[in-house]
Design a protein that fits this description.
By secondary structure, the chain is α/β, with parallel strands linked by helices. It folds into three domains: about 100 residues, no CATH class; about 325 residues, 3-Layer(aba) Sandwich (Rossmann fold), CATH 3.40.50; about 260 residues, Rossmann fold. The chain is built from 33 helices and 23 strands. Strands 1, 2, 5, 6, 9, 10, 11, 12, 16 and 17 form a ten-stranded mixed sheet that branches. Helix 1 crosses helix 4, helix 6 packs across helix 33 and helix 11 packs antiparallel against helix 12. The protein binds ligand T68. The site of ligand T68 has 19 residues, from helix 6. One of its GO terms (molecular function) is glycogen phosphorylase activity. Its cofactor is pyridoxal 5'-phosphate. This is Alpha-1,4 glucan phosphorylase.
């Protein structure tokens, strides 16, 4: 675009924007609030997007392309305004115009609430996959729940986590469109009886409680193309707002009770990551979005296919994100048999051909099991179908292995009066995949071993990926510009092109510019820390960062114990030569997870002690940033030097934060777990620092014993010292971390923290040495970025297209 064209566009934009502000606020620009400035900009952007959206939908309907639907109980999308503007290619026009109008674009963006409709990696992965699908012109849509309250906001008060409700819809949400005309009815409870209607056995559902599911659609705009896909989130409502007869009789409370019970289904997101909470309301949520989503998909399919279901499973992919939507199997069977008149065999074939399943965890406590009694009373028809699926499946297995009762029992979907949702998902899908190579191997060889023997062809592996648009281009614009001016812009369409950066490893001018970008990102984070924690940190220090949900297996404790050890060392020898370090933590603990909350308390206690100790000469600083969410993440990743990925080997399915850090040039300090292994392969052993037990070693200890944490403790005075400090008042008057102490010694250290301690200290020393050689560190950092192409979610989506959905 030449400069006069640009000028014209900017003038047109400014005029339209000023109009919009007047329209939404009734104020002129000068009097408008930042909130109204944001709302006006959001509406203007939506005007552009909705036109393209309608075109995309028309195209899909006309050409009947294969459509993918991601069914997920979480979509952690983050703020959308900036991402829409950049994807529309309006970045420069908008930024410059707002500046010329004297407005603060950053402040405007901060008015947008960050929808916390997910706990962590699982929900964020869906958002990355939607972004990549749209960027690659692939018809893929999301189907989930529009929670009125997302994940709680975390405050740190007196060093402890306090939860505050996340009322993200407080000021309305400009990027959704409510579609009451597309609402569907979901039936809960009641009874089923069979009747012969026109000679056919028909199942009739009676005395059920009807709930209305109303969709809200959010556009998913592709990067610099014309594709706009949809994220459909369902909200629960009553059919009539309230019971008028009861109201008229003066029974006010009863009249509104039904309304609030119905609405409770989409009221709140369960705040557990990697855990199973067997509550009735959760089961309702799961069926609610599965049933609503499938009904609309079938309706749309028939509408544009001459009212016929022919070819359905060739054109529709139902992809289930973990087991929360595993009722897609029985629900699709119900629709096909009870509503569309198919017999069992045909319906089953269509169901299995349509559905594929991604698993995200091997932690036994996270695997979903629903009591038969609960399923039977809440979803009587679904339960009948699950029973029948199981009957037929176990018969098949029995015929294959007649003498192996143990195997038959282990594979049964219904076991001990519980329904095993992972088993249901496997039996009802044509594809099951893990999210990193190691994880997929553990699924085949351990978690789902029996199923792998029965269906080896169904098992796949697709390593996770993250979107470079949000996590590199938008969050690290200076790096983006530097890359563009050095290696050209091809990498924006194909992240593997970042390899060209390897040509600059020995270029001192480039290295200086590269380091200047990192420094300015660290300054930005330091300002955030100053503002929120009232603490000054040195941007020249090593920013060593662990941000993720707080969980015992992720071992924030190992990181914290190392800080304590380093503190002890510095106290002993104030002249110890180390590169100054800022240890940064952030992450939420599930509100009911006491141990994780204690870890947060411990980190904050260590921070308080370290940061106030003048004798350390500011060689170390410790920061706990409250309320980790997507927006904060976007400030953190670009500023990192060290990426802490230190889970017990075999426990982290993949990790995706590791990829976001790497893409921004941080060096991974990690165990050989999840996708860390693939990062190590990509960058080579000299560009990563790894340590600790392998997953095989962990699993040997778990199976056969042989690890005694007390033995390690007794031999290592450094460990003795830090352990005592947990309980002797060092960390503050009255502060006692007895339960953490007990978990490590009394309960034999389930996650091998003490076992890996020594290796971790050595690895940390290597990090220190490497950082002190600036040239080496810069090269490592550049090499990490250069090899991050493999961890773009564009690559993951291509893998899914080829291997699982068979689209290309
Ligand atoms: C994460 N899982 C994995 N679960 O832990 C992580 N769980 O290794 C992986 O990279 C990521 O998924 C993407 O594959 C989760 O984030 C949850 O958040 C969750 C939510 C509800 C119930 C169970």
């Amino acid at each position: 675009m030449n400069s006069s064209e640009k000028k014209k566009q900017k003038e047109a934009f400014k005029a339209a924007y000023i109009n919009k502000i007047e329209e939404v606020s009734g104020d002129c620009l000068a009097e408008s609030s930042v909130l109204k400035q944001y709302q006006a900009l959001a509406e203007l952007v939506m005007d552009d997007i909705t036109t393209q959206w309608a075109k995309s939908n028309t195209k899909y309907n006309k050409h009947q392309n294969k459509q993918v639907y991601f069914f997920s109980i979480e979509f952690l999308i983050g703020r959308l305004l900036k991402s829409y503007i950049n994807n529309l290619g309006l970045e420069d026009i908008v930024t410059e115009s707002l500046k010329e109008l004297g407005l603060d674009f950053t402040a405007i963006q901060e008015q947008e609430s960050d929808p916390g409709l997910g706990n962590g990696g699982l929900g964020r992965l869906m958002a990355c996959y939607l972004d990549s699908s749209a960027a690659m012109d692939m018809p893929a849509h999301g189907n989930g729940i529009r929670y009125k309250y997302g994940l709680f906001e975390q405050r740190i008060i007196n060093g402890e986590q306090v939860e505050v409700a996340d009322n993200w819809l407080r000021n309305g949400y400009p990027f959704e469109i409510r579609k009451p005309d597309k609402a569907v009815i979901i039936k809960f409870g009641g009874t089923i009886h069979s009747e012969k209607i026109n000679g056919n056995l028909t199942f009739v559902h009676e005395n059920y409680e009807p709930i209305l599911a109303v969709p809200y659609d959010i556009p998913v705009k592709g990067y610099h193309n014309e594709t706009v896909n949809s994220l459909r989130l369902w909200s629960a409502e009553t059919l009539e707002d309230f019971d008028l007869p009861k109201f008229n009789q003066g029974q006010f409370l009863d009249a509104v009770r039904h309304k609030s019970e119905a609405e409770s289904i989409s009221q709140i997101l369960y705040p557990n990551d990697n855990g199973f909470d067997g509550k009735l309301l959760r089961l309702k949520q799961e069926y609610f979005f599965v049933c609503a989503g499938l009904k609309r998909i079938v309706r749309r399919y028939k509408q544009f296919n001459n009212n016929s279901m022919d070819g359905f499973s060739q054109k529709i992919c139902i992809h289930i994100n973990d087991t929360h939507p595993a009722m897609c199997g029985p629900e699709l069977m119900r629709i096909l048999m009870d509503e569309e008149g198919f017999g069992w065999d045909d319906a089953w074939k269509m169901t299995v051909e349509s559905i594929s399943f991604t698993n995200h965890t091997v932690l036994p406590e996270a695997l979903e099991k629903w009591p038969v009694s609960m399923m039977k009373s809440l979803l009587p028809r679904i339960y009948m179908i699950i029973e029948e699926i199981n009957q037929r499946f176990t018969q098949e297995i029995y015929a294959k292995y007649p003498h192996d009762m143990e195997r038959n029992y282990g594979l049964s979907i219904i076991n001990n009066d519980q329904i095993h949702m992972a088993s249901l998902a496997i039996v009802a899908s044509h594809s099951i995949n893990g999210v990193a190579e190691l994880h997929s191997k553990i699924l085949r060889e351990e978690t789902f071993k029996g199923f792998y023997q029965v269906f080896p062809e169904r098992f796949h592996s697709v390593t996770n990926g993250v979107t470079p648009r949000r996590f590199l281009m938008n969050s690290n614009p200076d790096l983006k510009d530097l890359l563009n001016e050095s290696i050209g812009t091809q990498w924006q369409g194909n992240l593997f092109e970042l390899k060209r950066l390897l040509n600059y490893l020995n270029d001192p001018i480039f290295s200086d510019k590269f380091n200047a970008v990192k420094l300015s990102n660290k300054i930005r984070l330091a300002e955030h820390i100053k503002k929120h924690n009232n603490l000054i940190v040195d941007p020249a220090s090593v920013f060593d960062i662990q941000v993720k949900r707080i969980h015992a297996y992720k071992r924030q404790l190992l990181d914290a114990l190392h800080v304590l050890y380093l503190y002890n060392q510095l106290k002993e020898n104030p002249h110890l030569e180390i590169a100054p370090r800022t240890f940064i933590f952030a992450g939420k603990a599930a509100p009911g997870y006491y141990y994780a909350k204690q870890i947060i308390r411990l980190i904050n206690a260590i921070a308080k002690m370290v940061n106030s100790d003048k004798t350390l000469n500011e060689k170390i600083r410790v920061v706990f940033l409250e309320n980790f969410n997507v927006s904060l993440a976007e400030i953190i990743y670009p500023a990192a030097n060290v990426s802490e990925q230190i889970s017990t080997a075999g426990k982290e399915a993949s990790g995706t934060g590791n990829m976001k850090f790497m893409m921004n040039g941080a060096i991974t300090l990690g165990t050989m777990d999840g996708a860390n292994i693939e990062i190590a392969e990509a960058v080579g052993p000299t560009n990563i620092v790894t340590f600790g037990l392998s997953s095989d070693e962990v699993s040997q200890y778990e199976k056969y014993g042989g690890y005694r944490s007390i033995d390690i403790y007794e031999k290592d005075p450094r460990i003795q010292q830090v352990m005592h400090q947990l309980i002797d008042g060092t960390l503050g008057f009255g502060l006692n971390f007895q339960n953490i102490y007990d978990s490590l010694l009394l309960h034999n250290d389930t996650y091998f923290v003490l076992k890996d301690f020594n290796a971790y200290v050595d690895a940390q020393n290597r990090v220190d040495q490497l950082y002190r050689n600036e040239r080496t560190w810069t090269k490592m950092s550049m090499t990490n970025i250069a090899h991050s192409g493999m961890f773009s979610s564009d690559r993951s989506i291509l893998d899914y297209q080829r291997e699982i959905w068979k689209i290309i």
